[in-house]
Amino acid sequence: MTETLDFSELKAAGMLPSPKGVALRVMHLCQEETVSLTELASAIQTDPALSGRIIKIANYVNPNKSRPIASVTIDTLILIGIHAVRQAVLCMSLISNYRDGPCKLFDYEYFWSTAIAKANAAQAISQLNRVAPPAEIFNAGLMCGIGQLALVTARPASYGEILQSLPAAPVDIIMQAELERFGLNQRDMLVLMLQDWGIPRLFIDAMYYHEDPISSGFPENSRMLRLTYTLQLSALLAHACIHGQEDPALIEQLSISCSMLDIDREQLELLLEQTSMNWMDWAKLLNVQTRRYNPRPLMMPPIKASPLRSEPVMETVQPATVALRILLVGADDSQRILLGKFLTAAGHSVTTTDNGLTAFGMATHDLPQVIISDWLMPGMDGLKLCSDLRKVPAGSKLYFILLTPFEDERRKMEAYEAGVDEILRTPINTRLLAARLLAAQRIANSNANPSA
Fold first, then answer.
1. Residue 143 pLDDT more than 50?
2. What is the mean pLDDT of residues 166-189?
3. Residue 25: which residues within 8 A CB-CB, separation 6 or more?
4. How confident is residue 315, by pLDDT bands cut at 50, 70 and 90?
5. Taking the mean position of all CA atoms in its chain, how far away is CA 11?
6. Which residue of 165, 208, 341, 426 shows the fewest CB atoms closer than 10 Å?
7. Do 301 and 236 meet the contact criterion of CB atoms below 8 Å apart?
8. What's the CA gap between 23 and 32, in Å, rounded?
9. What distance in Å separates the CA atoms of residue 78 and residue 354, rounded to the nearest whole number?
10. What is the reported pLDDT for 378?
11. Nearest Cα to 23, choosing from 53, 57, 1?
């Protein structure tokens, strides 16, 4: 029996999943370039349940366990990070409203567990290939399956009949059944929903084709094709985290996807480790079960040469002309790991810490030649760290690079007046970072050979 669905009618009837109320307001605020942290904190405080979850997340990442956080303040938001707040709000809104439903044959818990794994995998990959801002691609990974959830939500009984008639069927068979039953499938519904939410077409197209990037027809070496393969790889990594079985088909797909993104075996192992760790952390925060099926280690595939292109997407790491002592400071664990690997591969000596106060002590004791620091950090932020270091002998000659999401001229002037040497916008372009470090290498070489 065919029951053609009309998106406008479903939306008007409130039968489609979407962020609601305060959560929607918070997401819009987080997207504004000149977001006011005071306004953002006030908006979150109007929803006690949302405030409680944000406080829980803040205490989860709070380095000072002896002083638990009890309210949503500007410091709380800085501790978590604006992008992470947006991610958490989107997750909590959709999961809290649609984590269960009347379709008994649809595994809502498994759906959300997989979505969270995809989101974390996509974000980890984007920090390698910089194909999109990590927060945006996190949301893309999270929403890749939202079209199926929409059909389940709109027609739970009918969708249950499809699942009952096609147990354990692959997604292409399921989509064909959706099309015959509803006049559209989950990918069609995905596009309609994301367009309604105002998601950029770039991400909509990548999500639509991520299960079969070659069918997209996107130009070779284009950003669109890399973004689509990034989302495909995120889905494969999510599957590997949850199932972890030695599936020859999965291993073959991983090999192809990695080759298209110039990801080598060592990077793939790191991505799988990061995805698994972050998936478990986020799922715990959101009270989503992380069930594993056949939890055996995945046999890492050999990475094949790309069949579609000869030029690499990512630039290779060039060895530094002068090895530097670098202190890397930032609250984002994934960013520290990836930047640390990049800098170490270039021949530099790298130490890391996750907060400004510890960094100040390390800088005055270990005397690094370069500090690369996030601007936004709990306690002492990157700007204060630089300003304070410039007041002591140990910090007067070091080269300070500040990483920031801000672009406005006022903040740039504030940074330079505090003694910052270079400003780099996140997400980091590693080629640009390497270029900026050339100046630090010249200074280090000059200090080592003052008569030269």
1. yes
2. 93
3. 43
4. very low
5. 29
6. 165
7. no
8. 15
9. 13
10. 72
11. 53
Q: Which residue has the higher pLDDT, 400 or 132?
A: 400
| pLDDT, tens digit (0-9, with 9 covering 90-100), for 260-271 | 898 988 889 889
Q: Does the pLDDT at position 252 exceed 70?
A: yes
**What's the one-letter identity of residue 170?**
P
Q: Which residues pair with 352 in a beta bridge?
A: 328
Reference 173, options 211, 128, 210; nearest CA is: 211
Which amino acid would we find at residue 452?
Answer: A
User: Which percentage of the chain shows pLDDT scores above 90?
Assistant: 40
For the chain, the straight-line distance linking the first and the last C-alpha, in angstroms and rounded, comes to: 85
- In one letter, which amino acid is 310? S
What does the alpha-carbon distance between residue 353 and residue 253 come to, in Å, rounded to a whole number? 36
401 strand-pairing partners: 372, 422
Two tokens at 429? 């372009």
Q: Is 235 helix (H, G, I), strand (E, B) or coil?
A: helix
Strand partners, 371: 327, 400
What pTM does this model have? 0.63
pLDDT at 172 over 70: yes
| 452 C-beta neighbours (distance < 10 Å), count | 6
- Structure tokens given for 367: 């005397």
Distance of CA 427 to the CA centre of its chain: 10
Question: What token pair was written down for 130?
Answer: 């910089």
What integer pLDDT is reported at residue 231 of this predicted model? 97
Which residue reads 């595939």 in tokens? 301
Whole-angstrom Cα distance, residue 387 to residue 396? 10
